[in-house]
């Protein structure tokens, strides 16, 4: 087999010719960058923007393509599976995770290109789970540390949301008005909540409710997870990255980083990357890994060298450990009248009435319920691959596609040392070992799942929905390079700087200590903005010394 | 196999294609065929995929299933990864090629005929066993995990089937909506061009 030639994946596309040199030997900061960011997703985009704006020479290296929404995106689920990180990951554990489109992106914008746009702040309790509930660990930072950054990010991208948000320390209002109208599925959800005396809101979203920054409001096309063609939904692809380029940043897309290089003094010198089968080196004063929860530990472990035989930044042994996801069960009920869950923004209503620990429920922590839309491919694929429903039963369900309402749980999964990312013996197209991603739910998680399913069925039941089926799903990834004050039990400090290597940062959901009970993107971006501020301050300190 | 059941017999989503953006239209129309010769699958393998697909999606219309087979062939031929694969499961090319051989052996062992020769009820019962991981003993199952084989085949088949515009019309799915979007999204409302029920109870 001519494996080397045929297995090489190229999804090359580069629509920003004026901003990227075709010859990688003539790069803008080929001699040396101040900061090299690996991964142009939620965190990488924010870091690139903030740091280039502050005058740093920034290079962003992204494994996937530089998408153009107008020509690359389509209103089609199957075709847009290409937005995901499709590279094979080996999965294990008693609840092996579904990867790809379910939780990771490839290409400039990363996961923000296909996320649902649901935009929550964490609550105060999320940062002190150990103190509060006696499980997991506290973060080295508090809600108050992130608060100004939450506010900044919401303003920067004009988050739409309710005037009053009844849970957690932030009570609203959001910078932009809440979305209106909301879909039938979300209306049913809100009416069901009201009947049960539960408060609900129109979901806070990184989707425009009115024009902003040259972008139009949402037209309810409904393909948020397939890439937003009208650019009404925020992504770092259309917001932070183009602005960063204007501030001087260089984005190297279709470039896969295969190694973080260190010198004899134990400091990072830059990264090695591959483009069109050729290897290049990018020298940098500071390297930030924003390549998310699987690729970051994979790269750190793969970059092992004589000084760091167990991988970089891994003196604690915690690199790759405590991988978390969210419980993401989809609960469906059938109605007499059409609901048509394909219409409009997928999530337009939510409740956090079950967010905080309530001892009477028999488990700690909690969850958010999002009224959630679906499309034929997503639903049928989940039914067959996650719920073992096929043949006539699948046919019967799908013929009634328009008669189901759906609620999706976003429930907290407690960190567990046995849920982890390690390296396998199998090599990928770049010669890097494929990761093994091992995940199993714990007892508390399973109790939370059962409770969340029941609450969802009660809400839809109050509106006359009959429980139809439940798809055991997950959403999001967090952890594997957790932050902490103690270098023996954590990988990075509260500013995402690695304990072991002073000029190496890790900034993504990878640093989460616990997962919270809601969609994590806003917290990722707030952490990134705070890390950017820290790097800017550190540089100023250096100058004045 | 069965009568095609739809609540929207008059709806044809393809009639809306002039309102779709060009990129989307091009992608969706390709699913109507004709399809190029298979790249990876042999004729026998392609026939097996088609028969398996009839059971998975409970539909035997060849025009739609030809696309399903084509999609399977495209997926296996592509160097792009498979998102995830369980530890101990071979790469999808091997899983499917060896898996189809094992399915044929299984049919021989149980019914003294190849999978394509046994009757549909026997085929169905064989697939049900695979899905549960309870098919009869075969040496092949050591390399080919039954459940993973079933899941790989079924997921790929279903993905293509529910991406076919004829199926969209039957389930009343409005489909692509750019640049016009959906305007009437609230309870009980539909845009004028969306599927309307003919069987209102």
Give a quick set of tags describing it:
heterodimer; A: 545 residues; alpha/beta; FAD/NAD(P)-binding domain; 8-stranded antiparallel beta sheet; 7-stranded mixed beta sheet; 18 strands; globular; disordered N terminus; B: 201 residues; mainly alpha; 7 helices; 47% helix; elongated
Describe this structure in words.
Chain A is α/β, with parallel strands linked by helices. Chain A is built from twelve helices and 18 strands. Chain A has helices at 3-6, 42-53, 69-72, 129-133, 143-157, 184-196, 240-246, 292-302, 376-386, 392-399, 443-461, 521-544; strands at 33-38, 58-61, 89-92, 201-202, 250-252, 256-262, 268-275, 278-289, 324-327, 330-334, 349-351, 367-371, 404-412, 420-427, 433-438, 466-471, 474-478, 504-506. Chain B has one domain (13-79, 88-171). By secondary structure, chain B is mainly α. The relative contact order of chain B is 0.19. At the A-B interface, strand 3, helix 6, helix 9 and helix 10 of A face helix 1, helix 2, strand 1, helix 6 and helix 7 of B.
Straight-line N-to-C gap of chain B:
27 Å
Mean pLDDT of chain A: 95
Structural class of chain B: mainly alpha
Mean model confidence by pLDDT of chain B: 95
- Total count of strands of chain B: 1
Strand content of chain A: 15-25%
What spatial form of chain B do the alpha-carbon principal axes imply?
Answer: elongated
Largest sheet of chain B: none
Estimate the strand proportion of chain B.
under 5%
**Radius of gyration from the alpha-carbon trace of chain A, in angstroms:** 22 Å
Query: What is the helix content of chain A?
Result: 10-25%
> Low-confidence runs of chain A (pLDDT<50, min 5 residues)?
1-13
Sketch the topology of chain A as an H/E string, one letter per element: HEHEHEHHHEHEEEEHEEEEHHEEEHEEEH
- For this structure, the quaternary state is heterodimer
Largest interface: A-B, 77 and 63 residues
Question: Helical stretch count of chain A?
Answer: 12
CATH class descriptor name of chain A: Alpha Beta
Number of domains of chain A: 1
N- and C-termini, Cα separation of chain A: 59 Å
Low-confidence stretches of chain B: none
- CATH fold-level name of chain A: FAD/NAD(P)-binding domain
């Amino acid at each position: 087999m001519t494996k080397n030639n045929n297995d090489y994946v190229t999804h090359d596309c580069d629509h920003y010719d004026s901003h990227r040199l075709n010859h990688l030997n003539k790069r803008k900061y080929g001699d040396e960058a101040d900061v090299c960011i690996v991964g142009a997703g939620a965190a990488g985009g924010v870091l690139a923007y903030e740091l280039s704006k502050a005058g740093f020479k920034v290079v962003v290296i992204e494994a996937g393509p530089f998408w153009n929404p107008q020509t690359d995106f389509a209103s089609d689920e199957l075709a847009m599976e290409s937005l995901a990180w499709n590279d094979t990951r080996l999965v294990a554990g008693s609840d092996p995770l579904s990867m790809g489109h379910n939780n990771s992106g490839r290409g400039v914008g990363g996961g923000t290109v296909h996320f649902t746009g649901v935009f929550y702040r964490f609550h105060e309790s999320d940062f002190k789970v150990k103190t509060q509930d006696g499980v997991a660990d506290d973060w080295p930072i508090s809600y108050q540390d992130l608060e100004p950054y939450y506010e900044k990010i919401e303003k920067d991208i004009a988050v739409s949301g309710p005037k009053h948000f009844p849970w957690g320390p932030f009570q609203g209002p959001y910078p932009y008005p809440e979305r209106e109208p909301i879909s039938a599925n979300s209306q049913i959800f809100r009416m069901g909540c009201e009947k049960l005396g539960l408060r609900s809101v129109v979901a806070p979203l990184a989707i425009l409710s009115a024009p902003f920054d040259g972008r139009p409001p949402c037209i309810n096309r409904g393909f948020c997870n397939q890439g937003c063609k009208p650019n009404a939904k925020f992504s770092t692809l259309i917001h932070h990255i183009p602005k960063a380029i204007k501030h001087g940043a260089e984005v190297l897309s279709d470039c896969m980083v295969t190694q973080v290089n260190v010198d004899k003094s134990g400091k990072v010198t830059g990264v090695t990357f591959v483009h069109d089968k050729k290897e290049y080196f990018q020298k940098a004063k500071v390297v930030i890994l924003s390549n998310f929860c699987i690729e970051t530990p994979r790269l750190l472990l793969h970059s092992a060298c004589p000084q760091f035989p167990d991988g970089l930044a891994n003196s604690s042994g915690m690199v790759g450990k405590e991988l978390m996801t969210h419980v993401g069960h989809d609960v469906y009920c059938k109605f007499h009248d059409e609901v048509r869950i394909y219409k409009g923004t997928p999530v337009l209503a939510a409740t956090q009435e079950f967010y905080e620990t309530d001892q009477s429920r028999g488990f700690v922590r909690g969850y958010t319920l999002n009224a959630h839309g679906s499309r034929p491919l997503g639903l049928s694929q989940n039914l067959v691959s996650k719920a073992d429903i096929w043949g006539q039963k699948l046919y019967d369900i799908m013929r009634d596609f328009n008669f189901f309402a759906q609620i999706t749980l976003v429930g907290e999964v407690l960190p567990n040392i046995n849920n982890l990312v390690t390296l396998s013996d199998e090599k990928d197209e770049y010669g890097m070992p494929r990761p093994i991603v091992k995940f199993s739910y714990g007892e508390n998680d399973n109790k939370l799942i059962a409770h969340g399913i029941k609450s969802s069925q009660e809400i839809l039941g109050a509106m006359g929905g009959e429980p139809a089926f439940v798809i055991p799903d997950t959403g999001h990834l967090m952890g594997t390079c957790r932050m902490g004050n103690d270098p023996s039990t954590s990988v990075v400090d509260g500013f995402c700087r690695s304990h072991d290597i002073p000029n190496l940062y890790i900034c993504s959901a990878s640093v989460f200590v616990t997962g919270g009970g809601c969609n994590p993107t806003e917290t990722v971006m707030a952490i990134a903005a705070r890390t950017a501020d820290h790097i800017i301050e550190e540089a100023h300190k250096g100058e004045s010394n | 196999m069965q009568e095609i059941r739809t609540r929207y017999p008059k709806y044809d989503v393809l009639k809306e294609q002039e309102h779709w953006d060009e990129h989307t239209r091009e992608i969706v129309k390709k699913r109507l065929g004709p399809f190029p010769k298979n790249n990876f699958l042999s004729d026998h393998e392609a026939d097996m995929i088609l028969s398996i697909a009839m059971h998975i999606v409970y539909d035997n219309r060849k025009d739609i299933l030809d696309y399903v087979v084509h999609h399977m062939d495209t997926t296996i031929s592509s160097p792009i990864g498979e998102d995830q694969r369980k530890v101990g499961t071979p790469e999808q090319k091997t899983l499917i090629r060896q898996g189809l051989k094992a399915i044929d052996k299984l049919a021989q062992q149980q019914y003294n005929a190849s999978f394509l020769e046994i009757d549909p009820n026997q085929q169905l019962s064989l697939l049900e066993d695979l899905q549960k991981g309870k098919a009869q003993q075969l040496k092949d199952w050591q390399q080919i995990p039954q459940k993973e084989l079933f899941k790989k085949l079924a997921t790929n088949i279903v993905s293509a089937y529910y991406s076919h515009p004829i199926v969209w019309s039957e389930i009343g799915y409005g489909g692509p909506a750019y640049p016009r979007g959906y305007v009437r999204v609230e309870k009980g409302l539909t845009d004028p061009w969306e599927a309307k029920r003919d069987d209102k109870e």
